[in-house]
Every structure is written in structure tokens, then in C-alpha cells.
DNA sequence: ATAGGTGCAAAGTCTTTGCGCTTAA
DNA sequence: TTAAGCGCAAAGACTTTGCACCTAT
């Protein structure tokens, strides 16, 4: 693959901005200092990079796709209130691939775990507003 | 919630068609016998039903959302070749919620595991075409 | 009677793509 | 030199929504 400044910047942005950015986030983040950047280029490169295994695409119900620069084994928690995505390490999944291959004839390339719920901050806010009502 | 014939049909379709149908599938499936049905109604009801916990919405990278009428604990394998979705039961996830609550302050509502790879049929086809080349 | 649901079509949102120009190799 | 990549804008895919009509309660 031919080098491009844009791709380098996009990869850097996903790696360094640990918010699991959307394509739009990456675009606006870079647009400030690189006014010629186009959204199409961002999409093209995010897809390229995730196909190449340089970044991960995270698919979340009722939300747009996000990208993750961390390629080590970890999983994701999504807050239903604020829509933020948090990382988590889980021990009990270490045997997952093993179990799948022994129980099915499916060739496993990868897997993702998406935990949905409410983050600490939002839970706190919800508790506060409950108090106000009662 | 007020009863509607359309909603009943849509729920029945998702429950009985174990292909993890997309909204479009449900629409065309029912349209045959119910020509007045509109796609908007299908979307509205699929979203309603999944919010109510009657069905599950499955979000798959690079594919449209699918719906699942099985509400018991199980997970999903997606074939990257044919895009079909298969169910799988996994034992090692039984302690997952426990581990998350003990390790984080995240309130877990649910989680989904999406395993990507290649199904048996497609793997076979891939092997065949390799043979042809060599 | 009336709140909620439907059908329809239009509008939205997010993403991809065609094309002429640019640039890394 | 030239194939890959870019910027732009238009098109595409999928989903939501406003509104007038309909229907379960």
C-alpha cells in the first residue's frame, strides 16, 4: 500500500484518541489543522485500516460505528445513557475460541463482546433524578 | 401498548424465521400476504419490540441490523463469506456478568458476543477454489 | 371518543463512490 | 511515469418521521 499523509494522520488519531472515535469525530478532529481533508478519505482509510487489522471497527446497536486503535484483547462496555464506550479486560473469555472450535465447525477469525448498561456517572445522575421525583 | 395486527405478525415472523431476519426480510416476507403493510411500520415495530425485550437487535459490522426472536442466553457467529448468522451456546460466559460487576462500577443490562469467521459451507467452498488454482 | 397505530412518501443520517486532480514510488 | 490516493460532490443504503387516515379500547 502506498503511503499517504492522510492515512497516517487518521491512524494516529484513532490510536491516540481513546474515545473510540466515529468517522465523523476523526474528520472534525483533523479538519482543524488539515482543512483540505475530506470525509470520504476518512471513511476510505478507516475501512482500509480496519480491513488490514491496524484498527478495529466496533459496531454498536442504535449508534454509529466506532473505531478502536487498541488491538490487544479487550472488550467494550457501552453506556445506554451517554453512549460512551469503555474498555474492559475479561479473564473468562480466554477459553472462548477453544470452546468454539471444539463445539462447531466454524473457522473463527475474531470476536467482539459488547456489554450494554449504564456507566457509573450516568447511574449516579439517574439516582439523583429519582430522588428529586420522590 | 395497544394491540395491532401488524405488530403481532412482525413478532411472529421474527420468532418463527430463525434466519435472524433484517427489517427488509420481515417486510418482504409479510408483504406477500399483507400487501398494505408498509416498511415504516416494520421498522417502528421491530424497534418497539426490541425496546420491550420481546426480540433482540443484533448489530453486525459491515452489515445491516438483524433481529432475533430467541431471548434465551446464546450468542452469534457471523460468516464473513455468506453473511449468515448462526446461534451458539457458550458455557464459559456464565461468569461474565459476575466478573464485570466485581471489577467495574458499570451496571450491566445485557451483552452480546459476535464471533466472526467462516462457516463450514463457505470454508469448504474456499478450499475447493484453492484446489482449482493450484 | 380518542389515543395510539398505520400507510405513504418525504426527509434524514451515515457511508460509499465516480471522477478529475495530485502524489508517492 | 503511473498507479494509488485525494477532494469534492453526488448518489446510495438504510432508517426515521410527519401527517392524514384508521382502529382497538
Provide a quick synopsis of the model.
2 copies of one chain form a homodimer. With 134 residues, chain A is of the alpha+beta class.
What does this protein look like?
The structure is a homodimer of 134-residue chains. Chain A is an alpha+beta fold and 134 residues long. Chain A folds into two domains: 1-69, Arc Repressor Mutant, subunit A (Orthogonal Bundle); 72-134, Ferric-uptake regulator, C-terminal dimerisarion domain (Dna Ligase, domain 1, 2-Layer Sandwich). Helices cover 42% and strands 20% of the residues of chain A. Chain A has helices spanning 5-16, 23-31, 39-51, 96-103, 120-133, and strands at 56-58, 66-68, 75-79, 85-88, 107-118. The first copy, chain A, has a three-stranded mixed β-sheet. The first copy, chain A, has a two-stranded antiparallel sheet with strand order 1-2. In chain A, strand 3 (75-79) and strand 4 form a beta hairpin. In chain A, helix 1 crosses helix 2 (23-31) and helix 1 (5-16) packs across helix 3. The longest helix of chain A is centred in the C-terminal third of the chain and has 14 residues, at 120-133. Chain A is flat, with a radius of gyration of 18 Å. Chain A starts with a helix and ends with a helix. The relative contact order of chain A is 0.13. The mean pLDDT of chain A is 90. Chain A binds chain B through residues 57-62, 65, 77, 79-80, 86, 88, 90-93, 95-96, 99-100, 103-120, 123, and chain B through 57-62, 65, 77, 79-80, 86, 88, 90-93, 95-96, 99-100, 103-120, 123. Strand 5 of chain A pairs antiparallel with strand 5 of chain B. The structure holds a DNA duplex (25 and 25 nucleotides).
